[in-house]
Design brief:
Layout lengths: L10 E3 L2 E3 L6 E6 L4 E7 L3 H19 L3 H17 L1 H12 L3 H25 L4 E4 L3 E9 L2 E5 L5 H14 L3 E5 L6 H13 L6 E3 L4 H10 L3 E7 L2 H11 L5 E5 L4 E5 L5 H13 L9 E7 L3 H13 L19 H16 L3 E4 L3 E2 L10 E2 L2 E4 L6 H4 L6 E7 L2 H9 L3 E2 L1 E5 L3 H10 L4 E4 L14 E2 L2 E2 L4 H7 L1 E9 L1
Parallel strand pairs: 7-8, 7-10, 8-9, 10-11, 12-13, 12-20, 13-18, 17-18, 20-21
Antiparallel strand pairs: 1-2, 3-4, 5-6, 6-24, 11-23, 14-17, 15-16, 19-22
Helix pairs in contact: 2-4, 2-6, 3-4, 4-5, 7-8, 9-10
The structure holds nicotinamide-adenine-dinucleotide.
The site of nicotinamide-adenine-dinucleotide has 32 residues, from helix 7 and helix 8.
């Protein structure tokens, strides 16, 4: 296969690449250079209608395809993603601004893992049977829902897109999917891979366009019975408002404001190394990044000095350069938002310990959107900077004097996606883990992912869980059958 990012990308409907009905396009910008490098369809309700019709036509065939055949196609998609690692990684980096080494090491390998994981999962998926002591037997079928919508964000584009699509297809659904309009390229290239892998026409339809004119039309469509969404809490709220009165199943993976809780008895070297990563990986644009660092009093000053000195060494540069630890943030809009958040932190009385500014590079990246890793202290736990998601290379430091105070600070958030706890006292780790109100807790590690585990958040971080059987259950309807003996 010779996968190449084209200057004009197309929708993928019923196995064919097609232009949007309204013939309107949006600019696609490389955030590292500031240049428009491709055009993407500005799809609307008409394209959604076509995609739903194609999915409807494909459903009977795909949902009745034997599991082993579905496994083979999905597994072939995984293999083709691996075979095209370099082209996909380059496309991801040009769209998103993340370092190329990161796309190669994390984003694209995880996309193939997603397909491989759910391909094998579907071969082992089983359902319950309940015996009523000789009187009756119940068995539960789990049937595909029909046509489902999958909508994903820009921070881990192909990684999160495939995290939804793979389980939806595995259990026999047909999909209408939309990647973020900010990072559409790998979603477009995935369509070529699916075609080559032999996925039947109409089983997966990929549309491009904005949240308002395309995403919300997917959510509204009466024939789309379930919506799996990852993105902002704001959009999640809008989606829930449309989906709830239509009684659609929704899985909403939303924002975060995650605490890193660091006790004095932690394994220092591992903690400090990992905390730099969990703060600034992907320019802080991972929903699981820890943006509120809570440090026990007795080690606060030592932590501050060493954390600043290590973060200072994170070289911000051209994402194509192997030595760059930090690339560009995703867009001009987001660049301005993050810089505004830093201004707000100053107005709220925060002291900028490191960074706080845009980085101006020369040459190819002179017009790119780069921001220094930024560390802020001295803010109240309830101020906007500590309560609102920034989603950039910006963290705050707060101190605590005991476990109870650490817990109060950790839970002082409307979000509850993830948390990291650093301590060698395992009894305390378990105690804290049980009381921190987040869906994912890491003890003495970060971003260690087993795809079988439930993934999702409490509070404003969303509803539902992805991963493992949770995802396969979400994308199926259980039907209980009771037979009197
Ligand atoms: P976003 O909500 O702006 O957009 C996400 C996707 O939804 C895009 O494809 C967009 O076009 C679409 N969309 C936007 N409004 C919509 C609407 N009203 N109806 C239907 N679709 C709509 O989010 P973003 O800026 O792309 O991504 C960043 C956000 O995603 C952050 O808040 C981050 O925390 C969150 N996120 C969460 C997770 C998680 O697993 N919980 C993972 C990654 C990112």
């Amino acid at each position: 296969m010779n996968l190449q990012a084209p200057a004009m990308i197309a929708n993928f409907i019923g196995g064919k690449f097609c232009t949007p009905k309204n013939n309107k396009y949006l600019n696609n910008v490389n955030p590292a250079t500031g240049e428009v490098y491709s055009q993407i369809p500005d799809s609307d309700a008409q394209d959604v209608e076509m995609a739903v019709a194609a999915a409807e036509q494909a459903f009977a065939g795909w949902s009745n395809t034997p599991s082993e055949e579905r496994f083979k196609v999905l597994n072939r998609i995984a293999e083709l993603i691996d075979e095209n690692l370099d082209a996909l990684a380059l496309a991801e980096t040009n769209d998103n601004g993340k370092p190329l080494w990161l796309s190669k090491k994390v984003d694209i390998p995880r996309a193939s893992s997603n397909f491989r994981f759910f391909a094998t999962g579907l071969m082992h998926f089983s359902t319950d049977s309940h015996s009523m002591e000789g009187r009756a037997i119940n068995y539960t079928l789990r049937q595909p829902i029909g046509i489902v919508g999958c909508i994903s964000p820009w921070n881990l584009p192909l990684y999160l897109f495939t995290w939804k699509i793979a389980p939806a297809l595995a259990v026999g659904n047909c999909v209408v999917a939309k990647p973020s309009e900010v990072t559409p390229m790998t979603g477009y290239l995935l369509a070529h891979i699916c075609q080559k892998a032999g996925l039947p026409d109409g089983v997966l339809n990929i549309l491009h366009g904005t949240g308002l004119s395309c995403g919300s039309e997917i959510v509204k469509h009466p024939k789309i019975k379930a919506v799996s969404f990852t993105g902002s809490t704001r959009a999640g709220r809008d989606i829930a408002a449309i989906a709830a009165p239509m009684f659609k199943k929704t899985s909403l993976e939303l924002g975060g404001k995650n605490p890193n809780i660091i006790f004095a008895d932690c394994d220092w070297d591992k903690m400090i190394r990992t905390t730099v990563q969990s703060s600034f990986s992907n320019q802080g644009q991972i929903c699981l990044c820890g943006s509120r660092i809570l440090i026990e009093d007795s080690i606060y000053d030592r932590f501050k000095t060493e954390f600043i000195s290590r973060a200072k060494k994170l070289f911000v540069g051209d994402p194509l350069d192997d030595s760059s630890r930090q690339g560009a943030v995703v867009s001009e809009l987001h660049f301005n938002k993050v810089l505004d958040c830093i201004e707000l932190a100053k107005q709220e009385g925060g002291k900028i310990l490191l960074g706080g500014n845009a980085v101006r590079l020369t040459g190819r990246c002179a017009n790119g959107f780069f921001i220094e890793p930024t560390i802020i202290e001295g803010l109240d736990a309830n101020c906007r900077t500590n309560m609102e998601e920034i989603f950039g290379p910006v963290v705050t430091l707060q101190r605590f004097s005991n476990e109870a105070e650490a817990l109060t600070l950790a839970n002082t958030s409307d979000y509850g996606l993830s948390a990291t706890i650093w301590t060698q006292d395992l009894t305390r780790a378990h105690r804290m883990a049980a009381h921190v109100n987040s869906g994912i807790i890491w003890v003495n590690c970060w971003l260690l992912r087993d795809l079988r585990t439930p993934f999702g958040g409490f509070k404003n971080s969303g509803i539902g869980r992805e991963g493992g059987w949770e995802a396969l259950r979400f994308f199926t309807e259980p039907k209980n059958i009771c037979v009197e003996l």
